[in-house]
């Protein structure tokens, strides 16, 4: 199968290391030739936090990635306590067919304004190699209209597939190797951070921003 399709990325060859802090390792996220605006402002990508915040965090995540799940509560805590962060969700399902299914559920929920609820429900399932049935049960238990979800998944199949392909293309352009990866302002962090790590990275990104923090 061609690598340009999502399922070509099934092997979980490189998961991110455990929590980093202190001594946070960061890289510059956006090299020449990368369409920064397409990554930061894809109109179909779910956005939470403060849409007018002075710092954007782009999170490349997979619903079968235990490190993503470990980092999630601390990322959400930072977004809530900081109040000036715009969080862009990049569903990047690289860990199997069930990961693709989870991403499809979450993105279909966007059409009933329930992406955040489905995203958090899926992230709250512990472990890895979560089967599709368990993902679906978790989404239903979160109070989602499943009939509407199925209808939207079918009606918007092409749009959802196109968004997932764009996320894959962007991850390729950025040279990403595994989940999670967080683009924090102009910085790239390929690690599951704790709350202090996220705070440190956000402060570092704001200090590096040429216009006082806005990215």
TrEMBL record:
Chain ranges of the Thioredoxin domain: 4-207
PROSITE patterns: THIOREDOXIN_2 (PS51352)
Gene3D superfamilies xref list: Glutaredoxin
CDD domains documented for this protein: DsbA_Com1_like
Gene Ontology MF terms: oxidoreductase activity
Keywords attached to this entry: Disulfide bond, Oxidoreductase, Redox-active center, Signal
Family annotation (Pfam families): Thioredoxin_4
Source organism, top-level taxon: Bacteria
Family recorded in the similarity comment: Belongs to the thioredoxin family. DsbA subfamily.
Function: May be required for disulfide bond formation in some proteins.
The name this protein goes by in its record: DSBA oxidoreductase
Lineage, broadest ranks: Bacteria, Pseudomonadati, Pseudomonadota, Alphaproteobacteria, Hyphomicrobiales
